[in-house]
Structures are given as structure tokens and as C-alpha cells.
Amino acid sequence: MTDRAPGRNRVRSARTSAERARYVISPCCPRAIHSWMRDSSGSPVAGATHEKEMKVGIHPLQLYSLATPNGVKVTVMLEELLALGHKGAEYDAWITVISNGDQFASGFVAINPNSKIPALMDRSGPTPIRVFESGAILVHLAEKFGAFLPAGGQERAECLSWLFWQMGSAPFLGGGFGHFYAYAPTKIEYAIDRYAMEVKRQLDVLDRRLAESPYLAGDEYTIADIAIFPWLRSWKNQGIDWNDYPHLKGWFDEIGHRPAVQRGVMQTVLPCMALMVVPKELPARLLPAAASLALFAWLLTLHPTASGRVYAAYGGVYIGTALFWLWLVDGIRPCLLCNGSGFAGLSLILKRLDLLIHRQS
After folding, report:
1. Rounded distance, CA 37 to CA 252, Å?
2. What is the pLDDT of residues 332-349, one digit of tens each?
């Protein structure tokens, strides 16, 4: 111990101040990318950077989100509640483009001081209630509608334990592993190996749990399953061999085939796909065609069979026509109809299309 400590100190002191700055700022926090999140001294800041009120639609619940794993959690939960017949779970979803700094608008910061998606405004009562952090939103909705959260005893404790397991560890690991594996401008072998090994350990934790029970909290599907599923969707495409985790794979496939889960994924992924594939300078009247092409491509990934492709093509034309009609009536926003009546109409169309395809495939 006494021999090694001075060695570590000598290595650290040998780094110049420039090298230390490089380790702090690059590659994960390039100053050029994050300068708009800093004050004049270069220190990161919180709070609003510009004035902008959040839009409010026609439904009791107003969701401000994006197609990240945390965002998908909430739309899946809402669709599951609607599938159970809870009319009060109708919602308007507004895309918050974090790359544009939408989360630092004054209206968004008033809902979530931490400037992270998702954020929810519950306007069903006389006084609007703000809820931020995806786990808190799931608990709020579960308690509000009395669904997907056991009322008490060991079942409730188990459900909340797995929910907070996900909140405490999986986003950090998923964000760390996903960032260094797929998005970091510089590939750092140590970081990739470190996060990959921990992700695999946690996948083994889940696999062992699901060898004991069909769902994470026991015999019933709960918000614990809803919270963890979207993060596994993000890990699935990042070099993880699912054959090493057979119980987890079976659970994942079962959850992924739930119609409400598919609709919840669709509600966030489809608008974000349109944002990526539609150039900003594209004339507004061409947006329906571009959006229908994005939908067609996405539906093909869900329904690769011959009959599925036929109905995917039909769905693309159907959505394109419907979007054109909605553009004439209400105008298409950059967030692809994520305004009150427009998104309500799109949600209804997507649900009808989803039922049609699954009935015919």
C-alpha cells in the first residue's frame, strides 16, 4: 500500500494542466457542443435559457417527451391504461427536441427544474399537478388509476424495488454503455469494456429473477416491467447476445408483443423518425408524404411477412392521406401533429392501423 500510493500520485502530477482539461472536457463533454448549457465562466448551469410557454392540448394529461427509453416508459404506461378502459388516461404528447434545447425553455423548466424528459402535467383536477422523473410519473399514474402497482404487502415492495433498481442503475449504465459504444466521437476501450461488463452483469441479475417468476414483481405485469423494457430495447442493438439470457429474452419478447406496448413505442418513435427524415426546409404540404414513407419503413420492420408488407404499404398510404387531411384542417407542426387535435387524430389512426395489421398478418 505505501509503495503504490506515491506511484499513483506521481502519474497524476505528471499530467499537464492541458492534459487534465482534455480529460475533463473531451470526449464526453466537448465545449463546442455544450457551450449553450454554460454560463460566461464556462460552468454548467441549470434553469431556463429562453422564454417559451409549453403547448396545452385537449386531454387531461399533457406529456412533454421524446423517443428515449425514459420517454417510451410513459407512453407505454398511458397506452396500457387506455387499453384497460381508463378514459382519464387520454393524453396529448408533445415532442421535446433536446438537441434544440427545448428542455431549457421556461415553460419546460417550470414543469421539470432538472430539464430532462419526460415531464407530465396532470390537468385532470382543479389544480394542475406537475410530475417529473419517469419513475415518479409511473407511480403517479399507477396510483391515480389503481393499475399496475400492487396495493400493498410483499408484491408492492417487490414492484417498487425493481422500479427503483432501474431508476438507480440502468439509465446510468445504459447511458454510459450506449454513449461510449455507439455515440462517443472517440472510442475509449476502457470505458466500453467497463460499462459493457456491468451491463452484462445486470442482464444476468434480470435473467435470474425472471427464472423465478414470469414478471419482475411476481405473477403480475407491473410498472417495474414497463420501466425496464424500454431500456432493454436500447441495449438489444448494441452487441448484446440475448441467447446468454434465455429467461430475459422470453420476457422481453412477451412484453414486446403486447399491443399497448407497441402503440406506446409507436407514439414516440414515429414522430421522431419524421423529424429525422424530413428536412427542415421541406414545404409543409410535402410533410404527409415524407411521414408516410417513414411509417412504411418502420412498419416493415414490425411486419416482415408478405401479408405484413402489403398492409404496411396500405398503412403508409392511409397515414399519408390522413396527415394531408389534418394538415388542411389544423396545420402540421414541426413535431408531426403533436398538438391537441392533430395528435389526437393521429393517435386514433395509429391504433386503428395497428389493430388492422395484427388482424390480417
Report:
1. 37
2. 333 333 333 334 444 444
